[in-house]
Write a structure and sequence with these properties.
The protein is an alpha+beta fold and 466 residues long. Helix content is 43%, strand content 12%. It folds into four domains: 1-22 and 61-76, no CATH class; 89-196, Phosphorylase Kinase, domain 1, CATH 3.30.200.20; 200-388, Transferase(Phosphotransferase), domain 1 (Orthogonal Bundle); 397-464, no CATH class. The chain has 13 helices and eleven strands. Pfam families: Pkinase. The chain crosses the membrane at residues 58-84.
C-alpha cells in the first residue's frame, strides 16, 4: 500500500518563498509611500529642521511597514504550514486493512465474529485460529496496546501512530519473519492477521523433545538457530529505521513443516510503552536494571535460545535456581565452558558423532558470549550469521580416508604437493581462538599422507589436526 508522505523540506521551501515575496511587497509599499510624501512636500525652501523631521518620518514609515509585513508573513507561513500538515496527515482507517490478495474485508470480518480456537497468549494479547470463507486458515492476534482506563484509548494521535507502525511492519518480507497479512482496528484493540502454521512454536517443539515425543537432531537445531539469527539481522541491519524485536523467546519462534523458523511478535512491544519488557526469562540484564533496550538485547535473547537448543533445558527449570548452577542458564554454561566441561551441558540425545560434538562445543562458546553481561561484549546479529552458518562442515566424508585435516593459517607459504583447498571451518581450539580474536574466518586445507614429508612433518602432528 503506497502512501504519499508529508515532506518537511518542501514545506520549508514554500515558507521561505512566501517570506521573500511578502518582504519585497512591503519594501515596494514603503517606497511608494516615500514618493507620495515627497510629492506633497512644499516646493518652497525648507529649513534644516523640517528636512530632518521629514526624513525621520520616512524612516519610521519604512521600519513600521517592514515590521508589519514581516510579522504578517510569519503568521501567514505558520498558518499555511499547519494547514498543509493537517491535510497531509494519515487518516485513521476504519474497517479491515488488507495486505494480502487472498483475504477480503468481508470474509475477514465474518471470520473474526465467529467462535475462534485459542492458540496461546502473551503479555499484550491472545492468539486465535480461525478460517475464512475460502478455506484459508489464519492466525489472529488480539493485540491490546492500551491498559484499561488509559486515556490513550481515545487519543487519535496514538491510534494514528500505531496504524503507521503496523503498515510499516506489514511491508517487511523475509523468509524468517511472520508477515502481517491484515489488521482490523477496534475501539480498544487491534486484530492482527498472520499465516497459520500448524507445526507450532519452538517452545512447543522443545517441550515435545523433553517428553520424548519428538527427536530433533543437531543439524535441525542448528538450522533453527541460523534462521532465527538471519531474521534478527534483517530487522537490525536491513530495515530503515532499525527494528528491534523486544520479545524474542521460543514461544515467538514459529516452525514450519521443514523446521524453518519464522519470528513472530517482532516490533509490537514498541507500540505498548507501558508494557514491562523485562517479564520474560529471556530478557537481557539491562532491561531489568535501567530499561535500556538495543539490538544487543535481542542478541542476548538469541543466546538464551541457542542455549536451549544445545542443552534441551528450559531456563525456568528449578535447577537454575540452585546456587551450583549460578542462577541462570547463561551462568551455568559459562561456568562449564571455563572449566573445560562444556560437553556436560549438551543434550544427551545429541551426543554421538564426534564432528557434531565439536560443532556443538563451538556453539556453546557462541551462546556464552551472546549472554555477556555487558551489551558491548556481545557480537552483533550481522557477525553471528557467518559464525553459525559456517559451523557445519560440508565435506564428503569419503575424503577423510586418505586425507588429514590440518589447521594452516598461512597456507600460501607452503609448497606441499597433492594438496586440495576445501573451504571448511577450523574445528580446533587454537583456530577458533584466532577466528574470534581477529574477527576473520580461516580456511582448512586437506593434505595427502605423502605431503606431510614435504612440510617437514610439523603440520601433520596429532596436536594440529582438526
Amino acid at each position: 500500500m503506497e502512501k504519499r508522505r508529508y515532506s518537511p523540506q518542501v514545506s520549508n521551501r514554500k515558507v521561505t518563498t512566501s517570506l521573500v515575496f511578502l518582504f519585497t511587497l512591503c519594501l515596494y509599499y514603503a517606497s511608494v509611500q516615500c514618493q507620495e510624501s515627497s510629492k506633497v512636500t512644499s516646493p518652497s525652501p525648507s529649513t534644516p529642521t523640517q528636512s530632518k523631521n521629514g526624513l525621520k518620518r520616512i524612516l519610521i514609515s519604512i521600519f513600521l511597514g517592514v515590521l508589519t509585513g514581516l510579522i504578517g508573513a510569519i503568521i501567514f507561513a505558520f498558518a499555511v504550514r499547519f494547514l498543509v500538515r493537517y491535510m497531509k496527515r494519515t487518516p485513521i482507517l476504519k474497517g479491515p486493512v488488507i495486505f494480502s490478495p487472498k483475504i477480503t474485508p468481508k470474509s475477514l470480518q465474518s471470520a473474526l465474529e465467529n467462535q475462534n480456537q485459542l492458540l496461546g497468549s502473551s503479555s499484550n494479547g491472545k492468539y486465535y485460529r480461525t478460517a475464512l470463507d475460502n478455506g484459508l486458515t489464519i492466525a489472529v492476534k488480539r493485540f491490546e496496546p492500551f491498559e484499561i482506563g488509559s486515556p490513550e484509548r481515545q487519543s487519535k494521535s496514538v491510534k494514528r501512530r500505531i496504524q503507521q507502525e503496523l503498515e510499516m511492519l506489514a511491508s517487511l518480507r523475509h523468509r524468517n519473519l511472520m508477515s502481517l497479512r491484515a489488521y482490523v482496528r477496534e475501539p480498544d484493540r487491534f486484530s492482527l492477521v498472520y499465516d497459520y502454521v500448524p507445526t507450532g512454536s519452538l517452545e512447543d517443539a522443545m517441550n515435545r523433545v523433553r517428553e520424548n515425543e519428538l527427536q530433533l537432531g543437531w543439524e535441525v537445531r542448528l538450522r533453527i538457530a541460523v534462521g532465527v539469527i538471519k531474521g534478527l539481522r534483517y530487522l537490525h541491519f536491513e530495515c530503515g529505521p532499525q527494528i528491534l524485536h523486544y520479545n524474542l523467546k521460543p514461544g515467538n519462534v514459529i516452525l514450519d513443516a521443514e523446521f524453518e523458523p519464522r519470528l513472530g511478535d517482532f516490533g509490537l512491544a514498541k507500540l505498548t510503552p507501558n508494557l514491562d519488557r523485562a517479564t520474560s526469562g529471556y530478557s537481557a540484564p539491562e532491561c531489568f536494571q535501567d530499561c535500556r533496550y538495543s539490538d544487543k538485547s535481542d542478541v542476548f535473547s538469541f543466546g538464551m535460545i541457542l542455549g536451549v537448543l544445545l542443552t534441551g533445558r528450559d531456563p525456568t527449570d528449578p535447577f537454575f535456581g540452585e546456587t551450583a548452577s549460578g542462577g541462570s542458564l547463561g551462568c551455568w554454561l559459562r561456568h562449564l565452558q571455563q572449566a573445560g566441561e562444556a560437553r556436560e551441558a549438551l543434550d544427551k540425545s545429541l551426543l554421538g558423532e564426534e564432528v557434531e560434538e565439536d560443532e556443538m562445543l563451538m556453539a556453546v562458546r557462541i551462546a556464552v558470549v551472546c549472554q555477556s553481561d555487558m551489551p558491548a561484549d556481545r557480537p552483533s546479529s550481522d557477525e553471528l550469521v557467518p559464525m553459525l552458518s559456517q559451523l557445519h562442515i560440508h565435506v564428503d566424508p569419503s575424503l577423510f580416508s586418505d586425507w588429514q585435516l590440518v589447521d594452516v593459517h598461512d597456507p600460501l607459504n607452503f609448497t606441499a604437493t597433492n594438496r586440495t583447498r576445501v573451504e571448511v571451518d577450523c574445528i580446533s581450539e587454537s583456530c577458533w581462538d584466532e577466528l574470534r580474536s581477529e574477527h576473520v574466518y580461516g580456511h582448512a586445507w586437506l593434505f595427502q599422507d605423502e605431503a606431510c614429508d614435504d612440510l617437514g612433518g610439523e603440520f601433520c602432528d596429532r596436536g594440529n589436526q582438526g
